[in-house]
């Protein structure tokens, strides 16, 4: 190993040692603002302070500050309206920010409709249990409103796939587990497309099938209100498994990319 000039300290010139990278000024500013958004110091809809204030606050130049704002804009954490005098506005994203990339990854990986259904069967019953144990009356009321006020109209107008998918998504989001809610949001579009494809291939949802669906939803809501977490989980797992079994022959084996075209 070589030694540095005027010293006996060895110089490690190994090709496997990566050089230490110093973050750019813009990255440091973006990280600080991002942290303020994550912690809620900057809330959805808030405007960032004007450029002179931010430049003074962080001790940076205008180009560095603008580069930091562009980073946050690319992450969809702020919205910049060109020509506006109000400046960048905070936009706290929801699951939709990762939904499309996640769907694309599933398409590229060759994932099947069955893969998506198995994932949903893993998270939704657990979410039902958590929601039942939470005692969240307003959440139960919201699900019941979807069942009573939206699903009957959706069945008659041919929009049952969209409303059913939203019922499933809200079940998970209302469970109180943020991680499960984000995953449900990522899978929401695929779940909706899967339901729509299943209905389309069967031409229609019969009266008997519709009644069976609504009875299952009503049973779930009753268990949630009763605080029966274990029973709610078991019921919703049976519901999800029965839904898979009723899918048109061959649909489960189709690639995700084939139902997203």
Automatic annotation (TrEMBL):
UniProt keyword terms in alphabetical order: DNA-binding, Transcription, Transcription regulation
UniProt keyword Glycosyltransferase, yes or no: no
Region of interest: Disordered: 1-22
Entry's Gene Ontology molecular function annotations: DNA binding; DNA-binding transcription factor activity
Pfam family, one: GntR
SMART domains: FCD (SM00895), HTH_GNTR (SM00345)
InterPro entries according to UniProt: GntR_C (IPR011711), TF_FadR/GntR_C (IPR008920), Tscrpt_reg_HTH_GntR (IPR000524), WH-like_DNA-bd_sf (IPR036388), WH_DNA-bd_sf (IPR036390)
Polar residues bias spans: 1-11
Protein name: GntR family transcriptional regulator
Highest classification ranks of the organism: Bacteria, Bacillati, Actinomycetota, Actinomycetes, Mycobacteriales
């Amino acid at each position: 190993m070589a030694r540095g000039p005027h010293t006996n300290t060895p110089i490690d010139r190994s090709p496997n040692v990566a050089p230490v990278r110093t973050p750019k000024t813009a990255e440091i500013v973006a990280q600080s603002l991002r942290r303020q958004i994550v912690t809620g110091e900057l809330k959805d809809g808030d405007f960032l302070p004007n450029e002179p204030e931010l430049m003074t606050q962080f001790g940076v130049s205008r180009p560095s500050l603008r580069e930091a704002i562009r980073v946050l804009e690319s992450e969809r954490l702020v919205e910049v309206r060109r020509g506006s005098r109000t400046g960048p506005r905070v936009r706290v994203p929801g699951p939709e920010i990762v939904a499309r990339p996640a769907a694309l990854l599933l398409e590229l990986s060759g994932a099947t409709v069955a893969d998506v259904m198995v994932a949903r069967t893993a998270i939704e019953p657990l979410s039902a249990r958590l929601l039942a144990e939470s005692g969240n009356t307003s959440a139960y009321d919201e699900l019941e409103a979807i069942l009573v006020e939206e699903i009957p109209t959706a069945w008659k107008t041919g929009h049952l796939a969209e409303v059913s998918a939203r019922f499933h998504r809200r079940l998970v989001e209302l469970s109180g587990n943020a991680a499960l809610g984000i995953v449900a949001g990522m899978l929401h579009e695929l779940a909706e497309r899967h339901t729509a494809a299943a209905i389309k291939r069967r031409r229609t949802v019969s009266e008997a099938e519709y009644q069976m669906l609504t009875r299952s939803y009503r049973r779930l809501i009753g268990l949630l209100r009763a605080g029966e977490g274990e029973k709610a989980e078991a019921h919703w797992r049976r519901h999800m498994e029965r839904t898979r079994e009723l899918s048109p022959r061959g649909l489960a084996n189709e690639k995700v990319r084939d139902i997203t075209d």
